[in-house]
Design brief:
Oligomer: single chain
Strand content: 15-25%
CATH superfamily of the largest domain: FAD/NAD(P)-binding domain
Main location: cytoplasm
Largest sheet: 7 strands, mixed
Keywords: Cytoplasm, FAD, Flavoprotein, Monooxygenase, NADP, Nucleotide-binding, Oxidoreductase
Bound molecules: flavin-adenine dinucleotide
Function: An FAD-requiring monooxygenase active on some tetracycline antibiotic derivatives, which leads to their inactivation. Hydroxylates carbon 11a of tetracycline and some analogs.
Strand order of the largest sheet: 5-4-13-14-15-12-16
InterPro entries: FAD-bd, FAD/NAD-bd_sf, TetX_monooxygenase
Number of domains: 2
Mean pLDDT: 94
Number of strands: 17
Family: Belongs to the aromatic-ring hydroxylase family. TetX subfamily.
C-alpha cells in the first residue's frame, strides 16, 4: 500500500528525510514556503560531524559528493584575546575529516538533487485526524490530507502546534551577523588573520567570531548578552547605525579585530531563541517533528547535524516498515528526545561559557573539545 507522506520544510532536516525516502523508493511531497531554492541568501557555513551530519549523508548515498564539496581545512580554529594576542591556533591534520565545513548553499543543492519540491507552499497549520493521518492547511485556504506529516519547518514551526503548545523563548543573547566578500583580494590582512577556518575573540559577555566560506566569503557573528537596542530591531537600511553601535560595544578591542565590523557589508540582527531543553509531546498518530521544529537550541554546531541525522533515521525506519508508519514514528520520537535533550543541555551550557562573564571559560571549553 502506498502511503501519502508530506514533509513541511526544505531545510537540511526535511531534505535529508526526503532524499532517504526517495532512495528507498517511497514517494514524498516536500512543501516549502520559499518561492524557490534561491529565494533567500543561503547563509554561512556548516560543519558536519562524522557521526551525525556525515552519517546522514551516507544514509542518503551522498557522502562521496560531500567529500568533494566540503572543506576539511575549514576545521582550523584561531582564538585571540581582545587585545589581539593569539591564544590558540589549531589546524587539522591533512587527513582529518571529523568536522569538515560546507557552504549551506552547496549542502542544499546536494540534498535537493533531482528531488521534486513544491516551492511557494507555505503551510499555515496541521490538524491530526481522529481516524489517523493529518490535514495540512495552506494560506489560500486549500487543505490536503496525508497519512503522515513531518514538520521540518524550523524554529517557528506551523506544524508544532498540532503536537505541543511550546514556543521558543529568548535566551538573552543577541547575535548580529555581517559578511565580507572576496576577503583574500579585498582585505588580505584580515584574510591572514582569519586563517583557513574560524577565528574567535572572547571578551566579557561578548564574542566576535569570523568563519570562512568558499570563494573568499567570510561571515562575522557578534554575540553579546544584551539587546542591541531596547526599541525596534533595526532593518537593513540602518547598517551604519548598527555598525556604529557595535563598534561602541566592542570599544578597546584590537583594531584588526574591529576591522571585521568596519568592513562588514549588510547586518542581520537577531535575538537567540530556544525551546525548553526537555521539549517532548504525547505521541499523536499522523504528525511528528524533527530538527529545529522539535528542539531549537543555541547555534553551537549541533542543530543541522541533528536535523539531518533524524531525517535520515526516520526515512530508513519508514522505508523498513511501510505497513506500519506509526511504529516508525514512535521509534523516531523515542530516539530523538533524549539525544536532543543531551545536545540542548550541552549547547546551552556552552553558550553560557562562550558568551559569559569569564572569557577564560571560552578557552577552557575549546581545550575540552579540542584537547590536542
Ligand atoms: C548563525 C548560525 C550558525 C549555525 N551553525 C551551525 C553549524 O555549524 N552546525 C550545525 O549543525 N548547526 C548550525 N546552526 C543551526 C542550524 O542552522 C539549524 O539547526 C538547522 O538549520 C535546522 O535545520 P532544520 O531543517 O530543522 O530547519 P531549517 O534549516 O530552519 O529549515 C526549515 C525550512 O522550513 C521552511 N519553512 C518554515 N516555515 C514553513 C512553513 N510554514 N511552510 C513551509 N515551509 C516552511 C523554511 O523556509 C526552511 O526552508 C547554526 C545556526 C545559526 C543561526
Amino acid at each position: 500500500m502506498r502511503h501519502r507522506i508530506a514533509v513541511v520544510g526544505a531545510g537540511p532536516g526535511g531534505l535529508t528525510l526526503a532524499r532517504v525516502l526517495h532512495r528507498h523508493g517511497l514517494s514524498v511531497t516536500v512543501l516549502e514556503r520559499d518561492a524557490g531554492p534561491d529565494a533567500r541568501p543561503p547563509g554561512g557555513s556548516l560543519d558536519l560531524h562524522e557521526g551525525m551530519g556525515q552519517r546522514a549523508l551516507e544514509k542518503a548515498g551522498l557522502l562521496a559528493e560531500f567529500g568533494a564539496l566540503s572543506r576539511p581545512e575549514g576545521q582550523a580554529m584561531r582564538i585571540l584575546d581582545p587585545d589581539g594576542t593569539v591564544l590558540r591556533d589549531w589546524r587539522p591534520r591533512p587527513d582529518d575529516r571529523a568536522n569538515p565545513e560546507i557552504d549551506r548553499g552547496h549542502l542544499r543543492d546536494l540534498l535537493l538533487g533531482s528531488l521534486d519540491v513544491r516551492w511557494g507552499s507555505g503551510v499555515t497549520g496541521v490538524t491530526a485526524e481522529a481516524e489517523g493521518g493529518a490535514r495540512v492547511r495552506f494560506a489560500d485556504g486549500r487543505q490536503e490530507r496525508y497519512d503522515l506529516v513531518v514538520g521540518a519547518d524550523g524554529a517557528w514551526s506551523r506544524v508544532r502546534p498540532a503536537l505541543s503548545p511550546a514556543t521558543p523563548q529568548c535566551i538573552g543573547v543577541t547575535a548580529v551577523e555581517t559578511s565580507l566578500d572576496e576577503v583574500d583580494s579585498r582585505h588580505p590582512g584580515l584574510a591572514r588573520l582569519i586563517g583557513d577556518g574560524s577565528f574567535a575573540v572572547y571578551g566579557v559577555r561578548r564574542s566576535l567570531v569570523a568563519q570562512r566560506g568558499s570563494g573568499g566569503q567570510v561571515k562575522v557573528y557578534a554575540q553579546f548578552r544584551a539587546p542591541l537596542d531596547r526599541g525596534a530591531e533595526p532593518g537593513p537600511a540602518d547598517a551604519e547605525v548598527v555598525r556604529a553601535r557595535l563598534l561602541e560595544r566592542y570599544e578597546g578591542w584590537a583594531p584588526p579585530v574591529l576591522d571585521l565590523l568596519r568592513h562588514g557589508t549588510a547586518f542581520v540582527h537577531r535575538r537567540l531563541y530556544a525551546l525548553p531543553v526537555d521539549h517532548a509531546w504525547p505521541h499523536v498518530p499522523g504528525v511528528t517533528l524533527l530538527g529545529d521544529a522539535a528542539h531549537l537550541m543555541p547555534p553551537l554546531g549541533a542543530g543541522a547535524n541533528l536535523a539531518m541525522l533524524e531525517g535520515a533515521e526516520l526515512g530508513e525506519a519508514l522505508a523498513a516498515a511501510p505497513a506500519g508508519l506509526d511504529e516508525a514514528v514512535r521509534a523516531h520520537e523515542q530516539r530523538m528526545w533524549p539525544r536532543a535533550r543531551r545536545w540542548a543541555e550541552l549547547t546551552t551550557a556552552g553558550l553560557n561559557r562562550l558568551v559569559g562573564p569569564d572569557p577564560a571559560e571560552a578557552i577552557a571549553l575549546f581545550d575540552e573539545v579540542q584537547p590536542e
